[in-house]
Structure formats: C-alpha cells, structure tokens
Amino acid sequence: MPSAVDIRNVSKSFGRGAYAVEVLKSVSVEIAHKEFFTLLGPSGCGKTTLLRLIAGFEAAQKGQILIDGVEMSSLPPFQRPVNTVFQSYSLFPHLTVAQNVAFGLEGTGASRSEVKRRVGEALEMVRMGDFECRKPSELSGGQQQRVALARALAPRPKVLLLDEPLSALDLKLRKQMQIELKQLQEEAGITFVFVTHDQEEALTLSDRVAVMHQGRILQLDDPRTIYEHPSHRFVADFIGDINFLEGRVDTRGVIALKCGAVLADSRAGATHGDISVAIRPERAKRVPTGQGNVDGTLIQSVYLGTGLLHQLRLPCGSVFLLREAAAEAAPLPAHGGTVGIELPAAAISVFAS
Amino acid sequence: MISRENIRRVTLLSPSLTMLFVMIGLPLAILAWISLLQRGVTSGVDWSAPLGLDNYIRLLWEEDFDGTIFFHTRYLEVVLRSVLLAAGTTFFCIIVGVPAALWMASLPKRGRDVIVLLITIPFWTSLLVRNYAWLIILRDDGSVNWVVNALIPGDDVGLLYTNTAVFIGLVYSFLPFMILPIYAVFEKFDWSLLEAAYDLGAGRARAFRKVMLPIAMPGITAGAMLVFIPCLGAFITPALLGGGKTLMIGNLIQLQFGPSRNWPFGASISIVLLALMMLFLMGLALWKNRRSQ
Ligand SMILES: Nc1ncnc2c1ncn2[C@@H]1O[C@H](COP(=O)(O)OP(=O)(O)O)[C@@H](O)[C@H]1O
Ligand SMILES: [Mg+2]
Question: What is the pLDDT, as a whole number, of residue A267?
C-alpha cells in the first residue's frame, strides 16, 4: 500500500536569480496512513511552505509529492484529496457556520439532505452543533477553531493539513483542544500533517515528529526518541531544557569535560576531538558533595509544583540545570553551598562541535 | 425632556440641521409647491394660481383642441430612455469595474497607488470639458470614425447624437465611481479565503461566485448607487453627445426651466425624477435586506 503522503527530494526557492532563497532543501518524508505526523521547527524554517506544497498552493522546483501513490504536481489545489486548517482559520465571513462547513460538500454532487446530514455530523464531532446559524464573527477564537476543523474534516479528505491551528488560543484552551484533536484524529481515522513550533505540543500529540531547521529535516523519529536521543545539537537544544558541557574525547572514548569531570563516551568513541555533552536536567542526579562526576555551587532553587529546579554554577563558570522530584529531595545546602552532580552514562548525548 | 444632554445634542447638531433645512428641505418644499402651480404670463410661475395636479397629468395625457383627452408617450419615452441608459450604464460599469478593481487589488502597493491616481486625474478637469472631448472623438471627422473607416471602408459611422454616444459618454463619466468602491473592498480582501475555497474543492468560477462576489457586494451596491442615481439625472452628457435628439430627464427639466419658461412643469418632472430615485434606493435596500437573511 502506498504511503498517505510521499515527499521525495522536494526543493523550493522563493525569488529569482541572485535574490533566490532556498526555503526547502531536498526534503524527503513518507507519512503513513492514519498517522499523526508533526512538522516541528522554529519560525521561518519552512514548515508552512512544505504544507502549502502538499496542498498545492505553491509548486516545488524539484522533487515530487505523491498522495496515496498519485503524483500531485499537475493537480491544482481544488483537485487534491487534502484539506487544510489554516493558521488564521480563514472562515468565510459572509457565510454561517453551517454554510462554511457545507462549502466543501456542495461541489461534490452530494444531495441536499446528504450535505445537511454531514454538516450536522461534522459540527457534532467538534461539539458546535448549537452554533449552526451564527456567523464566524459571532464566535470566540476557540469556537472558530472548531468550525475550521469541522469544515476541513467534512469532505473526508485523505490527509488533513493543520498549520499551527492552536497557536492563537490561550494556554488552557490549547491544552483542551490538543486532547480533542488527538481524539478526533483517532475517531476519524485520517492522516494528520500537523505544523507547530511548540515542542511540547509536538511531543504530546504525534506518532512521529520531523524536526526542521533551515529548510532541512534534521531528525524524524517518534517523540520519545526525539526527546531522549536527539541526533543533532540543534534538536537537543530546541526540544525541552538541556545542559551542554564542552569537552574533548580521545581515541579510547574517554571524555574530559572543561569543568573537570571525566566520563566514558556512551557511543564508545565514535567521534574524537572537540565535543559537547548534553544532558536533560531531570536525567542528572544530585548526590552528596564529592561523590558525583562534578561538584556545583547552588545559585538558586525553584519550586515548580512537579519538582524542584536547581541552578548550579560549575567550576568552569557555566550554569547547570538539575531537576528532581520534590518529594524525594534530600535536604538542600544553603545558597552558595556545594552539591555533587552525577551524569549517568545512559543519560548523556554526545555531539561533535 | 430638556436635560443637559439634550440641550448639548441640539446645540451641536443645529448648524448642520439648519444647513440641511435651508439648502435641501426648503428648496424641495418650494419645488413641490411650484409643481402644483401654473406657468405665469410674464415669469416662469403664476404664484397666485390654484393648486392642482395638472402638470403631472400633462406628463401622460394631453387635451386636444376639440377638448378630448388622449394618452401620449412623448415624456414616457424620455423617462424610459433615461432609466434604460442609467441601468445599462450601471450594469456595464459593474461588468468592467469588478475585474478592473480585482486587477488593481492584485498589484503591488506602488502599482495600486499609481492606478488610483490615474483614475482620479480626470476629475481635475470639468465634466463639461471631458464631454466636449468625446464630442470631438465621436463626430464624423473624429478619430473613431477614422479608425473604423480605415478598417472597414464605407459610410460614416454616425455615432454622435445617438443613444450609443450618450451611453459611451455616461460610462466614461461614471466608471470611476464604480471602480473605486469595489476596489476599496478588494483592497482589504483576505486572499487566504480564496485559498480556503480552492482547498475545499471549489474551482476558480465557484470560488469567485461564492466567495469573492458576495464579499465584494457592498462595494458593488455602493458603486451602483453612485452610478445609477447621477446617471438618471444626467444633463451635460446627453445635451452634448445626444444633441437635441436623445433627451434624458435632465434635459427635459432644463428645457422647461430654460427655453420653455414653464417652471411648474419642470418642477413636476423633477419630483418624478426624485420619486424614481427613491424607488431605486428602496428596491436596493429591500434586496440587500433579503440577501442578508
Ligand atoms: N511567498 C514567499 N516569498 C518569499 N519568501 C517566502 C515566501 N513564503 C515564505 N517565504 C520565506 O520562506 C521561509 C520559510 O517560511 P515558512 O514556510 O512560512 O516558515 P514557517 O512556517 O516554518 O515559519 C521564511 O524565511 C520566509 O520568509
Ligand atoms: Mg508558518
């Protein structure tokens, strides 16, 4: 069976000649049926552009895009089996909620009663059944968001493209919509290509995440691998909090960090020369002074509810973040006191620098 | 109730209310009054004549010298021609104005500003001068005739002093009043709505009909009002380009107040013109109401 979306070596530049800027650089991805696939990256990395290429609003200079095994390059947007939830929703302001949702169904040759039934279904699915006769301007942001979702789902596309659909909502509503979105995707059984710059959102929702940077996909993995085993320094840095410690590794795989610690390279010396070691704040352990890989001076401790976050000054001068569960935390030294930091070999990632 | 608030409101409004009354209300009342009087022997109006509807009856019925009253269409034709020319001009302006405004809105900012300037430049000269220019272009030794004869040798085209010449002149004069309000709507148009329509499977025609046109409708109705109403009362264009042959209501009124010195009859035609315009506006409002439901 062909993949839901197959992107092969797609390159896209804007501008001509000397002013050309390459926004996508030979991007290749295969997205499976019914997958919740997320494009994650900082603003300007080309996420929207890739989505617009799939939808057909832009044409790639190189490469191919196949949807369900069919080459798309010659098809205009209105003939592609995809629908989009736009970042700004783009609801038709002159039409009611029901008319908005019916828009994509009316061109399909469905009968009036069929259209009415499916509009009802789609609105029920996003719990907007009571708002059929309202105009978009009479709805809140979250409600508009739901209508946009219903409108894009009603024609039952093979693939649903979502461009930062939740970014305009406030935190609480966003969390709630995330859960609903995930449920909806599972119920409808539709492939979702979801764009976000919010790493937490990407990790919670996705089956797989593609981390993009400057027009390239750096890492494509399930959320857990992305978080625990980032393949690039950029990915490690972009997703969650992380400590970077500079150092050198020799040919035997022994790492000497600038701050004084000596570790074994978990990957047994795959690289040598200057490297940086990355470790998540919650994977480092606080131990009594002198018993860890390195000692740090306590600058500040913050109570987070879910835990404690300590800011520690390392001997080389850089700041190290360490998180531990509040309940299990051993008594803290006074500010300015020292604590030991253990860097478990399984918890570190090593990047060439 | 005389509260401070009411006093303030009346005081602030009084200059404009006075102005409206003196410049519009009062003249209109005088006009309506005159339309019920008779022409005078030496002046345009016999102010002491009894009030009556004679002038309105005269528009459709005439008394023969043997006293029989019969129906005639002399003035009805003029009214009908005016309505048709005004409606035709409005329709044609919409047909040309919508694509033109759409094209303008699709230009980069600088290009738009240049086109808007080009559209407004003709207003720097008077309508009279611009219609004289058309007189020169359309007459038998003018450029239109010359070009047509060069392409298809034959008789003179004989455009001038026809309904077509008046139509050309009216479209030329009023097209900017259609383009600008439609452009104002399209300029603010959210183009992502068009993408949303495509995305939902609508082809270009359906996207235009179902999304762009309804959103442009306020601009189109504003344009229709700005074109139809002054067109219906147009005077200079039919006078110059229609010669004496193709009269419009405006010319008829001018004839009564001028050469014929029959002010009451002129006043009655003016009131009829006013009524026609009111009917048009009411129809438009009714239609808009129905659409928005
Ligand atoms: N139509 C366009 N013309 C020129 N440059 C564009 C156009 N669209 C996007 N870009 C550029 O392409 C880059 C990627 O944009 P985009 O795909 O919107 O990024 P993202 O959605 O990841 O924030 C940006 O640097 C942006 O300036
Ligand atoms: Mg974007």
Answer: 61
- pLDDT exceeds cutoff 90 at B189: yes
β-bridge partners, A40: A196, A211
Residue B145 has pLDDT above 60, yes or no: yes
Q: Which contacts qualify for A106-115: CB closer than 8 Å, 24 or more apart?
A: A107/B200, A107/B201, A107/B202, A107/B203, A107/B206, A108/A155, A108/B201
Regarding the domain with residue range A241-352, which homologous superfamily does it belong to in the CATH classification?
Nucleic acid-binding proteins (2.40.50.140)
CA distance A302 to B91: 72
SS3 B125: coil
CATH fold of the domain at B84-247: MetI-like fold (1.10.3720)
Give the pair of three-digit tokens for residue A96.
């009611």
Give the other-Cβ count within 10 Å of A23's Cβ: 21
How many interchain CB pairs under 8 A, A with B?
A: 59
Q: Tell me which residue has its CA closest to atom 16 in ligand 1.
A: A46
- This prediction has a pTM of 0.83
Ligand lying nearest the CA atom of residue A49: 1
Parse chain B into domains and list their residue ranges. 84-247
Over chain A (353 residues), what is each successive 10-residue block's mean pLDDT? 93 90 95 97 95 95 94 94 94 96 90 94 90 94 93 94 90 88 90 95 95 96 94 93 90 84 68 86 91 91 88 91 84 82 89 83
Ligand 1 atom closest to Cα of residue A15: 4
Under an 8 A CB cutoff, do A88 and B215 touch?
Answer: no
The domain ranges of chain A are: 5-233, 241-352
How far CA B103 is from CA of A57, B92, B93, B115, B118, in Å, comes to: 20, 17, 15, 10, 15
Domain A5-233 CATH class label: alpha beta
DSSP structure string for A60-112: -SEEEEEETTEE-TTS-GGGSSEEEE-TT----TTS-HHHHHHHHHHTTT--H
Nearest ligand to residue A214 Cα: 1
